[in-house]
Design brief:
The complex is a heterodimer of chains A (352) and B (511). Chain A is 39% helix and 22% strand. Chain A has 352 residues and is of the alpha/beta class. The chains are: A alpha/beta (352), B mainly alpha (511).
Chain lengths: 352, 511
Amino acid sequence: MTAAQKDVVVCKNVWKIFGDRADEAMAAVRAENLSKAEVLDRFGCVVGVRDVSISVGEGEIFCIMGLSGSGKSTLVRHINRLIEPTSGDILINGTNVGDLGPEALREMRADKIGMVFQNMSLLPHRTVRDNIAFSLELRNVDAFTRTQLADKVIDLVSLQGYGDRYPAQLSGGMQQRVGLARAMAADPDILLMDEPFSALDPLIRRGLQDEFLELSRTMKKTTLFITHDLDEAIRMGNRIAIMKDGEIVQIGTPEEIVTEPADQYVSDFVAGISKLKLVFAHTVMQPVAAYETAGKTVPPVADCPTANPEDDLDTLVGLVVDQSNPIVIQDAGQTVGVVTKDALLHAIKGEG
Amino acid sequence: MTTPTETPFAEFAETNGAYYADVFLKIQKSALGRFHINTAALFGSFIWAALRANWTLFLIGFVIDLIALVNLSLYFKYAGAAIENADKEFLVNRYETWAQGHIISALVVFVLGRLLFGWLADRLYVKQYSKWRIDRATPSGFSLSRLGMAGLIVLLIVPLMLYRSSQFAPDERSCIRQDRAIAAGEEVPFKAKFDCFMIGEFPTLIWIDRPDKVTYPRDDNGERTVLRTPAREGAPPVTLSTFVADKIDNGIGYLTVFYGVFFDGITVFLRVMLNAISAVFVGTPWMIAMGVLTFAAYAAAGTRIAVFVGVSLFYLAIFGFWQAAMDTLSLVAAASIICVVAGLPLGIWVGKSERGRAIFTPVLDVMQTIPSFVYLLPAIAFFSIGKPPGILATVIFAMPPMVRLTALGLQQVPETTKEAALAFGANPRQLLTKVELPLAMPSIMAGINQVVMMSLSMVVIAALIGAGGMGYIVTEALENTETGRGILAGAGIALLAMMIDKVVQRASNKT
């Protein structure tokens, strides 16, 4: 996916240093380029986010992946200014979030940005419907409109009939649907999802992931999705940013991350990932010329299985079974390359 | 010599290792005899403990022996005194009874104490072993060098204790007289001085000149003035306590004379409020009040409690406590309302602000530790006697739980829930009213329950300063030794308390 549309969320050189002497530490880091450990040692301050610049396009699902303590939750809280950056700017639709006054900030939080939390953080004393309508209530929307809007969102996340229950009466998966519905009730442009499915068991997680993908395809919300699970990031993300110690190590599409890891850290991560659905024929094929220089000839096309450059490895494996001839890749009727069984096996293993 | 399992025990105990290895193993297997006694400890007592460097046991053994020794010494003192005063029969009788008491105490404490010590010895010694297993720096083994330390402690404590118990202590008054005599230059024997300093009341170290007497007469224009009269020439000095107490009296006198309007204002406010409330309770015919209260209990807390309330009210009525009980209820209601109205915002402040917490935590600590009787004194000083000062003392006494539990409830609201509310654009007021207070409600309700219960107990005590109600009947019964009436009124108060507690608790659980 190319993010050629206009950028909805832009972070420019965002730094966050936690601690009483954050400003001092910031100056020192600028001057001497200190490491995280050195800052902790000299100033007793923790570097949460280190010089992060990202831009997220309209309708894009942008995953931020990293282990606990990598700064991903901290980064995302800068976007609705739950955390103030030590340095750097955050722009939403071109507006600098840092310049907003308290009332404008609250307005933006209520109207533009919905947030989903790992632990749901629902209000136990309110019914599901009142939880979902919470952001509307904060904007003083009248009770009738509130209920109407909330019921619409309840349908959207398939919670029909649960509107008058209390959160404690719902299972974890359903509670997170409420969380999602609450985030979408005010119809915001941006969704911030802070490990929304991490606390759920695998089957329910998968179901919710699918539902969310479906929803986001229809609703076209710009989404920042935080996860510590690379599988989830690859499933959900149009693009993925991998964070480590507050820094972004690599940004790219799932295929780029898997096939061209930027460093050892990322390649360790992707080592265990199945490439079948992520790598495509155009990446693994050998051009005909190169194939023939190696002293082999391409059998007649009629005897070979054929595929498109955009087919993934999974499809290629299906074609090559019980075949002795290599796969011929054709683009618009032209033979553009060849994939041998060996090349395919290497690609699945993640070599070459 | 020892098996591998016994080796660490023996290594720890050093001398007599095999015995301790055996005992410790039995303790670990829970196989030690119920009446197992360490003979060495039984006879050696604190000396044994010192040798083994177990200072807990040393303290226990030493205190047991010291109590026995002091009692023995007291026996000799009183037996001697009985012989000295052989001509006065009543003194002989008294001293002999005391002497007998002390010799019995000495023997019982010594025998039972030593047995207890012998029984405890191995059971506590094994704990020292456990500590030693974790930290090898823990003293272990058996060493004569520790006797020096033990001897020093014994030498510091025993002689003075024995001296104190074998001598008749001088009373405070004779010591003060002696101080004055010394100041006047008289010779006093060393023993008398020593006795006054060491074995009587804590010696009066500070003498201060008598402070000026302060009065506030009116001048010719009818304005109050401050008049200081110096103490008369040659008046004896006073103690620190008298001096400071005098100063406090002067301060209170000054405030009441010159800022009386302020205190009168509070009194008027309280009286108006109380009148309004007691118009409901006292001013309503008993039949209606009883019915309404029972129905209110039913609505708030259900049938069973309503029956209990009905029966309790009937008890109060039939024994002639109706008016008094309604009086008490009015006082409780007035005090509780003030506590909640003032305590809730204070609690919010304490719960949400670092500074509020810093200021109020020590204040609340003091308010809760001061005995309830003490609150009556400033109430009288500033507001004289009657119902308003009674309510005021009650409010001070009953407010802390409201503040504390409100603050606690707010602090227990999860950070993440608050963050979520902020993320959806809540402003501070919305955060408080829509998230924090609702989530803190159970804690706040517990606070209200506490306030009501504490108000009731204080309102009863406030009868001492004329607050009236059920407490007045009890104090009256105390003064006239009308035991029966006192018991009936006491039971009535207990019923009132249970009634209020049950209703408030049920009602608060419902929300």
